[in-house]
Write a structure and sequence with these properties.
about 110 residues; alpha+beta
Length: about 110
């Protein structure tokens, strides 16, 4: 990892990167901690499909095959999160999917700007 890329490892939101076959290539420190009970960063090299339910596997396959984006919010154990899954590209060619999971405050301001 180059110095310009090192920021992502200590980024305070979970970042997981997988290739176009669903193989996990990278998890930052927060992702490792978030998925600690499933193996944390030892999941790198394994398939995303092994980490998801059958319904989630189908959604994931669609995102990967069609290079689609998926964004949603969840609440688990009293923690609200915004999850953003998006394709990533290398030299203009589809390379896989990245997931960024951001913890949200319970009460959050929302602005509509004109």
């Amino acid at each position: 990892m180059e110095n310009s890329d090192k920021w992502v490892n200590e980024f305070p939101s979970a970042v997981t990167v997988a290739d176009k076959n669903g193989k996990i290539l990278f998890m930052n420190q927060k992702a490792g901690k978030t998925f600690e009970k499933y193996g944390g960063t030892s999941l790198v090299g394994q398939s995303l499909y092994d980490c998801h339910s059958e319904a989630s596997q189908k959604k994931l396959a669609e995102l990967i095959e069609k290079e689609k984006t998926n964004t949603y919010t969840i609440e688990k154990n009293g923690i609200k999160k915004l999850v953003h899954q998006s394709p990533w590209y290398l030299d203009g060619k589809y390379a896989g999917i990245v997931e960024i999971s951001i913890e949200l405050p319970v009460e959050m301001a929302h602005f509509i700007r004109k």
